[in-house]
Write a structure and sequence with these properties.
With 407 residues, this protein is α/β, with parallel strands linked by helices. The chain folds into 3 domains: 77 residues, Winged helix-like DNA-binding domain superfamily/Winged helix DNA-binding domain (Arc Repressor Mutant, subunit A, Orthogonal Bundle), CATH 1.10.10.10; 138 residues, Nucleotidyltransferase, domain 5, CATH 3.30.420; 167 residues, ATPase, nucleotide binding domain (Nucleotidyltransferase, domain 5, 2-Layer Sandwich). The protein is 39% helix and 16% strand. The radius of gyration is 22 Å and the shape is globular.
Length: 407
């Protein structure tokens, strides 16, 4: 079995750098040579030459893609020729943790998953040992050990400065109370470098990589759970903004006279369709009746699917408000697709239908016209999107800043 770390050391030549970029691209996703060229921004001639050399060295093999039969060379994927290395992605939410481990020589959908209902709200002192144990279990399920981990990425529901990889100001709870950095703490626990980014950004990265949106110019991924965020892919690249604050959809002011948000604003979208608000609204409607009240967004959605009138109304109203906010985003960015993820996506058409209706009412018609191939849809990756994006982030980070500048 092949340990790829020997082939991923800092490159000393342009040829080595290209070779490393191609290996990393295949580690993220087996692909055709044309697809690798597009993702690495290398010429097809460069990719073809490098792939031939890698095949001779026993690092890659050519495999016909059954989904692309009849397409000639375009149906032949480049895959790794067996590797011991494991990539890890972690989605550290407020009330949940999802850990994904994948052998880099396997398909993205052949992942091992560990999940917990604990999260960042329990504090880093509690959650880091939990995450470490979940990673060890997920990696063991791949048939490898923690020594074989080659990269770790972590998704968090907070703004991350793209230059430093740490929290961007304002640092909102629960992080500000502890002053800890989950990437640093997890790296210390594992003995492996850990990189971190905003969860909605990584959801967008996963949708672009694995969700069928890799050919689109502008992709918006909406993470709607405890908080509301969005990741923006423009021209094939994540739009993070100067300080990492781009895409903070949840802090658009929807009601200037509304309740105060934890960001210091008033009437933010997050305060009117976030999970805690929706649960509170349902509970208030049932004053004097404490039986069978939902204690979580998942429970609220389950009751709505069982035709509970109050829960249905709460979700439909949330969809309409989300659509109004997304209409402003559509007028600014004119995206090809908006993908709804996070816990709220489990409501399906209860949220998606009123969201689409509000989009059509409040956005410029040309921005959301289905005849122009605009699409509003649910995430194909469901609850794994953020963790899969974190896995991609971790692998991508192996390419050094110097090598990125040279390419």
């Amino acid at each position: 079995m092949l340990d790829l770390r020997a082939h991923l050391r800092p490159a000393v030549s342009h040829r080595d750098s290209n070779r490393k970029r191609i290996i990393l691209a295949i580690m993220i996703k087996p692909d055709t040579q044309a697809g690798i060229a597009r993702r690495t921004i290398l010429s097809q001639a460069t990719v073809s030459t490098a792939v031939r050399d890698l095949e001779k060295d026993g690092i890659v093999r050519m495999e016909r893609n059954s989904a692309a039969q009849g397409k000639g060379g375009r149906g032949v994927r480049v895959c790794l020729q067996g590797a011991v290395n494991v990539a890890v992605g972690v989605d550290l939410g407020f009330n949940h943790v999802t850990v994904i481990a994948r052998r880099v020589d396997e398909q993205y959908d052949r992942v091992k998953v560990q999940q917990s209902t604990d999260g960042a709200n329990r504090g880093l002192a509690h959650v880091i040992p939990l995450v470490k144990g979940m990673i060890e279990e997920a990696v063991a399920e791949t048939g490898r050990t923690s020594d074989d981990i080659i990269s770790v990425g972590i998704a968090v529901p907070r703004m991350i400065d793209p230059r430093s990889g740490t929290f961007a100001a304002p640092v909102l709870p629960p992080w500000s109370g502890e002053g800890g950095d989950p990437a640093i703490e997890l790296a210390r626990a594992l003995g492996v470098r850990v990189v971190m980014d905003n969860d909605a950004n990584l959801g967008a990265l996963a949708e672009q990589t694995y969700g069928g949106s890799d050919h689109l110019e502008t992709v918006v991924y909406v993470k709607a759970s405890t908080g509301i965020g969005s990741g923006l892919i423009v021209g094939g690249n994540l739009l993070r903004g100067r300080s990492g604050i781009a895409g903070e959809l949840g802090h658009l002011t929807m009601d200037p006279h509304g309740v105060i948000c934890q960001c210091g604003g008033r009437g933010c979208l997050e305060t009117i369709i976030g999970a805690e608000y929706l649960i509170d609204q349902v509970r208030k409607s049932q004053l004097g009746n404490s039986a069978d009240l939902p204690g979580s967004l998942a429970a609220l959605i389950a009751k709505a699917h069982a035709n509970d009138a109050v829960c249905v109304r709460a979700l439909q109203d949330a969809g309409r408000l989300l659509g109004r906010a997304l209409a402003q985003l559509c007028n600014l960015f004119n995206p090809d697709v908006i993908v709804l993820g996070g816990q709220l996506a489990a409501a399906k058409d209860l949220v998606l239908k009123p969201c689409r209706e509000a989009l059509e009412r409040f956005a410029l018609s040309g921005a959301v016209d289905p005849s122009t191939d605009f699409e509003l849809r649910l995430s194909n990756l469901k609850q794994r999107a953020e963790a899969l994006g974190a896995l991609v982030l971790g692998l991508s980070s192996i390419l050094s800043d110097e090598e990125i500048e040279k390419s």
